[in-house]
Design a protein that fits this description.
By secondary structure, the chain is α+β, with helices and mostly antiparallel strands. The strands form four sheets. Strands 5, 6, 7, 8, 9, 10 and 11 form a seven-stranded antiparallel sheet that branches. A hairpin with a 2-residue loop joins strand 16 and strand 17.
């Protein structure tokens, strides 16, 4: 393919292939093709002028040239836009729109007066139409205020002033739209399903394959507690599916043969096989972003108050203008007062601050599902932690495998791994990892596992019923008997460990002791949370009291509950709320989901189960707890900024109103200062909140 080198310096090469040498889709393909080379750092293709900019590692110029020369006009690669493309296009679109508005405003001054008047009246019709629509809906809002100010200004013959007012209003709209779209783009990228592999049925056996290898029509398998990776139609099995990411409805719905299931939803109970209908890039996961962006239920209460306050202030602007006209008999002064609008800045800066904070959080690997939860996190006085996988390491280790009866240690570990391999909890991962380390083959020797939520797993291995889970599940729910000799071993060997138990055909077969050390950063994080205003820090665990006590001593926690069942965790959260506390719940497992749902605001860990992430209001996408401190500081900062914005808006606009009523400034100056201050506050609201 022919090209011309425009810029050539070490590490940076710009070439041009000619106007419209490739389409946008081919440009994305060229970017992907060159980016795939190890020498490439950053690639930008521009379809309008056929330009290509490549930043590369020093010493690899010839490699990049070879890649460019290898492109064929008749067979250019094609790809879809990636997140970096969307961001660049959004920035370019905003820059073009802003330049157009500014240039149009000033170039219009060069036209003959009749043409200028006509264009000004034409522009004004849009604002008047919006004002009329608001009045027909019996609303006296900012649309009516803007329309009235423009109408009075034009009625006085101040066409230039009216044009300036409209230009500033349009620029304010552009800035708001740009900010929201940019935040949405960041959230979309953060919300993308990061699923690498999927269970697919091949030759009658479930095989774990990369999601990139899955084709439309393949049969995929989803087990209890895991996320559905692709859209499809259920072929067999039955499951309770949490579809809140699609519908906002928190309760699970039953899905069986013939029903549709969607990517991003989570199987709470049961197992299903489904035929893949669409691949990852075409799934309905994008609806999550729409839910976050549009749901009134997810707005922070301060945002709703700001919107209500903004609309309630508008009538006072009209009253102030009328009083000024009555006292001064000056239409100009009354018009100047009319151009002063408290509501515009209040209504714009509050949501922009919150959206910007959510974007900042996403950049810090924290996903927040709505401003409501950011506000709750800022106001919380109590935080409750699950122990295993939350305050302790997400990757615990199997410290001991203790067989009972005549069973061998390897047999116990192999059986345990056989059941645990399909489930996402950190303890399950530890068991499977230990079996792999010891090279104990264990996959697919059992029937379909049945996950008894928050208790354990039941299945069959070689026609024998096998159970694995907590002490409560094995002994109380399933009635497995434990001899005095076994009890003595359990007490002596299990001291200080988290333990799970294996039973075969109603008899205790083994015990796995899990070494679950606390996270290295946990104590420092808890200290910082206390200093930020968190008054109560509580730990909940299903482990024994001795194991809980040891962990709390290391963490400096004085209040904890041990041996707690999932329903008990939810009851504790409910009781704390009944005392008037605002409660944060942090967890990672399926057994934490009832408590997560009960809290004022809930947080799921990165390595948590899919259902915990689905139920939680906030997800930490990093592997440590530091995000909690970041989130606390961020949430408190943003609401402090919102309150500061309120004070600045009231003070500045009141000053403009008084200056206008006193005849010290003209309508054009008032509009310019008001809109400039609004844009300035919007710009400040977009800043990083950290």
């Amino acid at each position: 393919m022919k090209y011309k080198i425009i810029y050539d310096e070490p590490g940076r090469l710009r070439v041009r292939m000619g106007k419209y040498a490739f389409t946008n889709e081919q440009g994305y393909g060229i970017e992907a093709h060159i980016t795939a080379h190890e020498a490439s750092l950053q690639v930008e293709a521009t379809a309008v002028n056929g330009g290509l900019l490549v930043n590369y590692k020093p010493g690899h110029r010839e490699d990049i040239i070879a890649l460019i020369e290898g492109l064929s006009r008749d067979n250019l690669p094609v790809s879809k836009a990636q997140s970096v493309n969307y961001k660049r296009e959004l920035d370019d679109s905003f820059a073009r729109a802003l330049a157009y508005r500014v240039c149009r405003h000033y170039l219009k001054k060069l036209l003959p007066m009749p043409v200028r008047i006509f264009l000004t009246l034409l522009d004004a019709t849009r604002f008047w139409k919006q004002g009329i629509v608001a009045l027909t809906e019996r609303k006296l809002n900012v649309d009516v205020l803007d329309a009235s100010a423009i109408l009075v200004t034009i009625a006085q013959g101040h066409y230039a002033a009216a044009s300036s007012i409209m230009t500033l209003l349009r620029i304010s709209e552009l800035l708001e739209d740009y900010t929201k779209k940019k935040a949405r783009q960041t959230l979309t990228q953060s919300l993308a399903l990061n699923i690498d592999c999927v269970w697919v049925v091949q030759d009658g056996t479930s095989v774990y394959v990369p999601v990139s290898q899955v084709k439309v029509g393949d049969t995929a398998v989803v087990y209890s507690g895991t996320i559905i990776p692709l859209d499809g139609e259920v072929l067999s099995g039955e499951a309770l599916v949490n579809e809140s990411s699609m519908t906002g409805e928190p309760h699970g719905v039953r899905r069986g043969a013939g029903d549709s299931v969607f990517a991003g939803t989570v199987v709470e109970e049961g197992n299903i096989e489904f035929r893949v209908r669409t691949l990852a890039e075409n799934s309905r996961i994008s609806n999550i972003v729409s839910l976050i962006d549009n749901s009134e239920n997810l707005k922070a209460s301060i945002q709703g108050k700001a919107e209500n306050l903004a609309d309630k202030i508008v009538p006072f602007s009209f009253i102030a203008s009328a009083i000024t006209l009555l006292l001064t008999r000056s239409i100009t002064r009354a018009t100047t007062v009319l151009t002063v609008d408290y509501s515009c800045a209040i209504k714009l800066t509050t949501p922009i601050s919150i959206i910007s904070a959510m974007q900042t959080a996403a950049n810090q690997h924290i996903l927040i599902k709505g401003g409501k939860f950011l506000e709750a996190f800022a106001n919380a006085d109590t935080i409750v932690f699950d122990k295993t996988g939350t305050l302790t390491n997400a990757c615990p280790n199997v410290a001991k495998v203790i067989p009972f009866g005549r069973r061998k240690r390897e047999t116990v570990l192999k059986m345990a791994a056989c059941l645990e391999e399909h489930f996402p909890h950190s303890v399950a991962k530890a068991v499977v990892r230990q079996a792999e380390i010891e090279k104990l083959g264990h996959r697919e020797e059992h029937a379909e596992p049945e996950y008894i939520v928050a208790h354990g797993i039941s299945s069959k291995v070689k026609d024998k019923r096998v159970l694995i889970g907590s002490w409560h599940f094995i002994t109380e729910d399933e009635g497995v008997t434990v001899t005095d000799e076994q009890m003595a071993v359990i007490k002596s060997e299990g001291e200080g460990y988290s333990s799970i138990y294996l039973a075969v055909d109603g008899k205790l077969a083994g015990m796995l002791c899990i070494d679950d050390p606390v996270r290295s950063e946990a104590r420092e994080v808890l200290d910082k949370l206390r200093s930020s205003g968190i008054e109560h820090i509580i730990m909940l665990t299903g482990d024994s009291a001795p194991a809980a006590k040891i962990a709390c001593a290391k963490l400096g926690i004085t209040e904890y509950y041990a041996g707690v069942l999932p329903e008990g965790k939810a009851d504790i959260i409910r009781a704390l709320k009944d005392e008037g506390r605002t409660v944060i719940m942090v967890g990672d497992g399926i057994n934490d989901s009832p408590a997560l749902a009960q809290a004022d605001v809930s947080v799921a860990m990165m390595d948590g189960s899919d259902i915990a992430k689905e139920v939680a209001d906030i997800s930490l996408m990093a592997e440590n707890l530091d995000g909690l401190v970041t989130l606390r500081n961020l949430s408190q900062n943003v609401f402090a900024q919102i309150n500061s914005n309120f004070s600045a808006i009231v003070a500045f606009n009141t000053a403009l109103l008084l200056l206008g009523a006193g005849g010290l400034i003209q309508p054009t100056t008032s509009a310019a200062l008001h809109n400039t201050s609004t844009m300035l506050l919007c710009g400040l609201s977009m800043r990083n909140k950290m």
